[in-house]
Write a structure and sequence with these properties.
Helix content: 55-70%
CATH topology of the largest domain: Fumarase C, Chain A, domain 2
Oligomer: single chain
Order of helices and strands: HHHHHHEEHEHEHHEHHEHHHHHH
Shape: elongated
CATH architecture of the largest domain: Up-down Bundle
Largest sheet: 2 strands, antiparallel
Strand order of the largest sheet: 1-2
Number of strands: 6
CATH superfamily of the largest domain: Fumarase/aspartase (Central domain)
Number of helices: 18
Bound molecules: arginine
């Protein structure tokens, strides 16, 4: 093939000919790893300072190097400097940019550094930065759910298991259940961040360096807690990517579960929720349609998040230490999960924040479907009846209702006594939705008193999450 003499390849020395076009095309990553440019430059500045401390750059050289890196960063930001197909990857492109600005001095920066420790560092910096954006989005989502829960706090609803009426609940209690899932997601990302705060820079290709580098100083400079303790592990470890993709896959699953509920709630059959026009779509043929596309895309995209995790784990499986080029395949799935999540979470948040809950429709069936049967059984237990018998007696009352085509609360004292003499008239007190709700006042229960306390606890949790994002000085 024609070899461009000006090529910026980082490894030309021992080759008599340049790569074939097929080799180049397969190898190319600059079109996706360009997202790492900002982090690569951050790492370069830290590395330059360490070369200076090791007296491998003098004061003047360091100043020139840092100024050129700043200039390059500006050009990257404003789009006047971009990686090209000639560059192979982001690291090559940025070295070219530096040499274009500095001449031969630019070639000094590569000392003691390999693309292997460089790319592992860049990806950690990229993810630690983006995790903070994802946490901010998840806080907004929790806040939106909390807002709706407070707005409709006392609306009763049929709580479901197997998607069948089970026991009455407050609708707010169900909304808040989703908040807890997203709070755990934030907790998981914060926990991830502790393990991800390890700097690979200084590991070189795999064995460390004979130059007097200072991995501890570099780690500190880049906001990591510490440098990696093993240079082979430093360049081959992608656990932080796998863990991140698991955390995002689970966030995706949580979004798909609330997405599915919104889809159900907006059906004509349920009629529980009306979406704001700006957060729904229409049909090109059916003028009456208003579709819950955000909920559906939340469901659909969960497949993508799970797929990205599977892809990464499959890439890593049986990969010999240390660096292998297979690891270049870690990036597109990671970028995809980051970017899709940053599209999806704000949309779900907007959909929730603007939806209208049709309280009457939600409450209508709260006590129906024999949803108070457990209350009858537990009332019997409080009268000293073993639960096993209480369950049978309450079940017999349900059967009676089914035969008559009525609900438990339609039975009179005489009807109940005819089912079993232990069902005295006092049982009628618990045969109301409000009575059933108020009774479930244990910690985490659906009683209004318990839900008020839960709301307070969630507010404290959200404040703590915000505190992690903006630590006090
Ligand atoms: N583009 C490469 C990657 O993403 C950078 C590291 C290349 N290292 C190498 N030894 N060829 O993994």
């Amino acid at each position: 093939m024609e070899q461009n003499e000006e090529t910026t390849r980082l490894w030309g020395g021992r080759f008599s000919s340049g790569p074939s076009p097929e080799m180049t095309a397969l190898s190319l990553s600059v079109h996706f790893d360009w997202r790492l440019a900002k982090y690569d430059l951050q790492g370069s500045r830290a590395h330059a300072r360490v070369l200076h401390a090791a007296q491998l750059l003098d004061d003047d050289e360091l100043d020139k190097m840092l100024a050129a890196l700043d200039e390059l960063e500006k050009d990257v930001e404003n789009g006047s400097f971009v990686g090209t197909a000639e560059d192979e990857d982001v690291h090559t492109a940025l070295e070219r940019g530096l040499i274009e600005r500095l001449g031969t001095l630019g070639g000094k920066l590569r000392a003691g550094r390999s693309r292997n420790d460089q790319v592992a560092t860049d990806l950690r910096l990229y993810l630690r930065d983006n995790v903070r954006r994802i946490v901010a989005d998840l806080i907004d989502l929790q806040q939106a759910l909390l807002g709706k829960a407070e707005e409709y706090r006392d609306v009763v609803a049929p709580g479901m298991t197997h998607l069948q009426h089970a026991q009455p609940i407050l609708f707010s209690h169900q909304l808040l259940a989703h908040v807890h899932a997203f709070a755990r997601d934030v907790d998981r990302l914060r926990d991830w961040d502790k393990r991800a705060a390890v700097s690979p820079l200084g590991a070189g290709a795999l064995a460390g360096s004979s130059l007097a580098l200072d991995p501890v100083a570099v780690a500190k400079d880049l906001g990591f807690e510490r440098p990696a303790d093993n240079s082979i592990d430093a360049v081959s470890d992608r656990d932080y990517v796998a863990e991140f993709l698991f955390a995002t896959a689970l966030i995706g699953v949580h979004l798909s579960r609330i997405g599915e509920e919104v889809v159900l709630w907006t059906t004509t059959e349920f009629g529980w929720v009306t979406l704001h026009d700006s957060w729904a779509t229409g049909s090109s043929i059916m003028p009456q349609k208003k579709n819950p596309d955000i909920g559906e895309l939340a469901r659909g995209k969960s497949g993508r998040f799970i797929g990205n995790l599977m892809a990464l784990l499959t890439i890593l499986k049986a990969l010999p230490l240390a660096y292998d080029r297979d690891l270049q395949e870690d990036k597109e799935c990671t970028f995809d999960s980051v970017e899709q999540l940053q599209l999806l979470v704000p949309a779900v948040t907007g959909m929730i924040a603007t939806m209208t809950v049709n309280s009457d429709a939600v409450s209508r069936g709260a006590g129906s479907g024999h949803a108070l049967a457990t209350d009858v059984a537990e009332w019997l237990v409080r009268q000293g009846v073993p639960f096993r018998e209480a369950h049978e007696i309450s079940g017999a009352a349900v059967r009676e209702c089914d035969e008559r085509g009525c609900e438990l609360y339609d039975l009179t004292a005489q009807d109940l006594a005819a089912v079993d003499p232990r069902l005295t008239a006092e049982v009628l007190d618990v045969l109301t939705v409000d009575g059933a709700l108020a009774a479930r006042s244990t910690h985490g229960g659906t009683a209004p008193t318990a839900v008020i306390k839960q709301i307070d606890d969630i507010k404290a949790s959200i404040a703590a999450q915000r505190g992690w994002l903006e630590p006090a000085e």
